Amino acid sequence: MPACPPTPPEVVIVPPARQFGPSTGQALQFAEAYASEDIVLQTARSLAHELGLDSVTPAAGSMLRLLAAAGSAKAVVEIGTGAGVSGVWLLRGMRPDGVLTTIDVENEHQRIARRIFVEAGFAPSRTRIITGRALDVLPRLADGAYDLVFVDADTTEVGACADAALRLLRPGGVLLVNGALAGGRISDPAARDVDTLTIRETVRAVRESEEWIPAMVPSGAGLLAAVKR
Questions:
Q1: CA neighbor of 212 nearest in space, from 136, 149, 141
Q2: Predicted model pTM
Q3: Looking at the DSSP assignment, which residues form a beta bridge with residue 224?
């Protein structure tokens, strides 16, 4: 019998190497500078800094606005009002008749945010400001009634807030989680602190769930974005 021909080696297609280095940092700086902020957002950002709060970066804020606009969002939930930076970005992308429900445990933060929203030109009827712990407030919100949920909460509550968003969002609604890169530690196996582990688990759970269509956006502190199926 003729000898069998040898099995050809498996062909592995290697994609061209991507460039990482100084040019990447410059590109990220350009992306942040591309999203300009007016005096209202600059004021809100300054007040947040005085309060010791981290706010979404301009690039991340512009992504919030874009996704709110792309979905013609009318009903949005924000977990973590802060001084109103992310709220203004969201409102500027929402429909003119849209209402932002924003939750924060600190009444003083919300007092400042309420002033910022007015200075940005939004009528009080455009916001529903709720003071309280997110995990106490979210169960009182209606199922499937929201177009977008933005989570900028205490890290220990991020996973539970993402779970709640699945109930709150309509099909096609968008979940956004800020800080999804865990301060750059997300891919470092040596990083085993509680915050990083919590974020890592949330990112993994959303990616592996059949109920979400996810993506990671490296804007600002990182945005985990997911569309509800």
A1: 149
A2: 0.88
A3: 177, 216
